[in-house]
Amino acid sequence: MNDNYDFASPNTGGWTAAAAGSVLQSVLQDAGVGVWALDVATETLIASEQCKLMFGHRPESPFSYDDMLYALDGQHRRTWREALDKAIETGEELVVEVKLQTPLHQVRWIELRGKVSGALIKTAPIITGVLLDITTRREADEHRKLLSNEARHRAKNFFALAQAVVAQSIRTAVSLQDAQARSMGRLQALASAQDLIPDLGWGCADLADVVEKSVLPFQADNIHTAGPHVLLGPKVVSTLSLALHELATNSTKYGALSASGGSVEVFWTIEQQETLMLRFRWIEAGGPEVVFPVRSGFGSRILGELVQLELRATTRIDFRPSGVIYEIVAPVASLCMEPGSGQLPRTGG
Asked: Does pTM top 0.70 for this prediction?
């Protein structure tokens, strides 16, 4: 078998140039590689079918250098031009990544590689090269960057909140032992909340899971929960977990959960007002008679200011003699996003 094919002229034992070119074009097309050539002086572009397809044009339709530039926005047009000028000036290989928009408004990333014909660099530069669709790779890179930024952002918010919790717990405690107990309980609630937040992306946790996880360390048999599926973002999960921890802790010490016959109902509904609203209620019953607190501490700020800030909510706490009632009303749209600053209010004692 003769393996020495003549691609330049017909050969009875080999391929013609047209046949070889057809096979090569088929291989490149199957590999998703476009081929192009540009006469820089006249700005005449020759593009393969695959090249046209990447720009969103039909293989049989005309495709000019102006069509190519039109698909790029101002920034990426400048990026292309700078890379082209450098390749012409130095004779080095052109390698550039640009973003384009097709006539149907599809966004794609492409990598252009080319080389100026060595003998023509100083006379009539002609550059030939290939074109690769790198959209999937660029989107994956962007996704990784976003996840990394989100992880840093989430860690920063968590430590800021944890720092504030410890500082405020110490500040309002009546003794060192009290400060330790308050701090550790609240930090444990925050740590448990993080287990509910998905590790990847901006996924949200289910409200039912947040409630269940938050009340688990307490007398869960006396706590009954019910409500529809509602998604909560990372900050809302942390904030609501802290609020539920405060409610359950106080109830265990002074309220319904301190009595054998006491119980707590935790339920939530979605209501159609001007927009969809979550109404969340904590209702105690069967405990000792409630005494209105004589002082407002850090726990009250969690149940009030912090919840209002992070959930864009209104809150109400009613110290009825028969049992505490706590209510949150918040727009559903704000729950699976990051609406607040992530910082605890600095006012108050």
From this structure: no
